[in-house]
Write the structure tokens for this entry.
Amino acid sequence: MTYLQLLLRLCGEFKQILAMAFDGSVIYQVANDLGLDNLNRVARRAGVMSVLQVTAYYSGRRVRHSVARVIEYQLGEVELLLVYEGFNRHKPLRLSLPKDRLEKLVRALRQAKFDTLRDQDGLSFTDRGLWLIQRAAGTYSHGVIVSPDKPQLPWSSIVNAIDDYLPSAIREVPLRN
């Protein structure tokens, strides 16, 4: 078998892999790979009311994968943790978030019926970027994968809400060459 034949065969196999059904398991693994505690465990901790997490996964590897986690505490404090792949040794940047911004975001998610949605239709490994949005409180947990580049209702209203109320969650940090 010549090198060209082998290359063509591998390209065909790669196309078959890309055409496989998209399950999103790789995106669910990003937070763990970046050293964050399990979302459900964090939501069950004493003093935590709720947790909202946005995982940004980028194909093509020009941009770092990232996780933004918003933790609402019973005492009223809202903390935003940002972790970027390969940045700051995966230690989260800790920021304070105004409670009213979280409330507006949660309201927008409710209006989009986030808790009843499944993953956006037509997703694939070839999409430029994918976001996994997860909410957890106590024993409740729900997640939805969306493509910010494919504006379909009701998922587009979720993308717009994150753009409006949590823009730092989806800030693209390029990989250095």
